[in-house]
Amino acid sequence: MRMNKLVAPVKFRPWLTVVLAFVLTLSSFAGLAYADDAVTGISFENSPSMARVYIDDDAVQVDVVASISGSASTKNVTLNATWSTSNSSIVKVTSGLLTAVAKGTATISANYQGYKISLPVTVDYLYDSVTIKNDGTAVDSAINVKLGDTIVYSLMAAKSGANDQDFTADATWTSSNTSAATVEDGEVTLLAAGETTITGKYKGRTDTVKLTITSPYKSLTLTQEDGTKPDLLEFNIDTDSQQLTATAVTTDGTPSGPIKVVWTSSSTAVATVDNGAVTPVGVGTATITASYLGVSSSTMVVVRPAYEAMRITPKEDQHITLKDTPIQFKLDVFDGNDTPIPVTSGIVWTSSNVYAATVSSDGVVFPKGVGATIIKASYKGLTQQLNVTVYPTITSITAAKISIDAFVDDSNVTLPKVSATSLAGDTVDVSNLTNWTSSDTTVFEKADGKWTAKKAGTAVLTAVVQGKTVTIKVNVHEHPLLLTSDQTNLSVVIGKDTKLPTITMTYDTGEEEDVTSLVTWKSSSSNLLVKAPNIKGIQAASATLSATYLGKSVTVRVTIEEEITKLTIDNTTLTFSPERSATLKVTGVYKSGKTIALGAKMNWSINPESLATIKGSSMKTLKEGTGTLTGEYQGKSVSVTISVIGKLRKLTPSSKALTLAPEGSETVKVVGEYEGGRLTDLSKAVVWTTGNSKVAVVTDGVITAVAKGSTNIRATIDGKSATIRVSVK
């Protein structure tokens, strides 16, 4: 058996590791050569009684060899054996490689072809202890330090029977709070007040020291050149720097001498600071901070423009062509009043796209190529910018529409897009280049940069771009309110032309206009063809016909069907009560003899209109009266007389009881009360009866006594009755 340096630590060099791996690989192949040989036993090479490894030290390799039947030699089976450890928290083993984990003892085992061998392993520290020292003296477990202190530690390792060794450079150093302090090779850098624990570690042994870090100063004060403390430093963009001075006071109240302060600005785009000199750079606010060994002080800085406002002329976005002359921009600034102050120098002019256009130092913009750019002017904290678009040379122009509609008093009418053809044959939108003029400014004119419809009428607009022109018509209308059709249902006979419905526009002035020829028609079905002024049905179907004009629309339900030869309505005379609903029933007979219910499809009208309302086949009576109800379908019509009569609610006699002498008489009237409150004298319309004609008789309300006795006289009509008690004495 072979065991590499079981007592002393081994430091493997990289080349040695490679050679060991190569040797182990060869050993594996050697094992394969004996694969069919009979193994009589296994053992550790050189048969040690115990192995020793050290924490955080190099791993130790243990080899296993096998004895072969009939051979005096052995083979290395280290890589082929199965390895195990009795306690992996003490030592780990992989292919015979022992790695220390923690101090203690454990047993490793190797199994190969039914044979097992074991080896005790002791894990220990290579050194008894390590100690953090400062100038050769062990440091306390906790010490107080101040920012600015120089701290350099060493790490000494002790081992019984040997001199202490310095492993400062080889040790692992850490700080528990790197925002307070960092450590490298024992050298501690103090960064901020706070606490941290410095740890030195070597070969599993560690030592620590807790540092409590404080500032040697209790405050830092900023002063201006005149000795005052600044609450706010105020600048204009073109003013000079201001100097700040920082003074620190120690914890015992003693002012410091000259100190090397760290100066910072929260926004160097607004203000910079160099050794206390604050210089304005750009408009805005920033915080200037001075820091020194844990104390700091800050002041706010505000930088304002040199002037209140700036105006660039021209101020509108520019649209030019490659043929156009350069544009001269001018700049004025304002300082508390509306009097412009011309600026001729010191302006920074820039173009965001120099391919499209460049700008000179004096504000002249030169068109260079087709494209767009942003021209910006900056002056003493103020900026202004506008867009410049450069267009190609064109050969012709066209408008997206030949006419547009507008409404009276519309104050921002959008004109159609104008496109141009360039020299390259490309289509370019030149709407922003277009100069429009109106043939009648009383109808349509441009006011305050916006096109305004003045009154109802027509005007012709002419667009001019690079000498090319195109015209469109503007139709100015009163404001539309409602679009209506004279038919809500339309029957179209298959294969026959049918005239389109008449469409009427009602304007907010109350004026009505027949716009049948102006509307846009649309059919919901390919079975209904629209070719003004007619429509034609191809085959039986239902469709919707829509008419649209000036943003308003109306729809008509269309039925494409056979020709109707006859229309009949259920009654020739209809009687209803007021405020009652009724269903109108109409039967149509097709040419084929088939019948269809058309009540809901008829185009109904009633005269007078105050008598009832009709929607579909549903009619609702409004008030008493008589009129004519007419329904039209496929050019055929049917009419019926309609009477609206209130229902009798009750009868009231002029007297409820009479006393007569024989042969005496008295006239009684009966009043009928109808729905709606109408009262009517029904004396001659009622049916009069007597309960006993031997006592009294009645004719048209005249009651005549016959003989002594009593009886009831009754008036009856429409299911209502009134009774009069008659006594003859």
Automatic annotation (TrEMBL):
It comes from the Bacteria. The keyword Ribosomal protein does not apply. Keywords: Signal. Residues 1-35 form the signal peptide. InterPro entries: Big_2, Invasin/intimin_cell_adhesion. SUPFAM superfamilies: Invasin/intimin cell-adhesion fragments. Residues 38-122, 133-212, 231-302, 306-389, 563-643, 647-727 form the BIG2 domain. This is Bacterial surface protein. It comes from Paenibacillus rhizovicinus. The lineage of its organism: Bacteria, Bacillati, Bacillota, Bacilli, Bacillales.
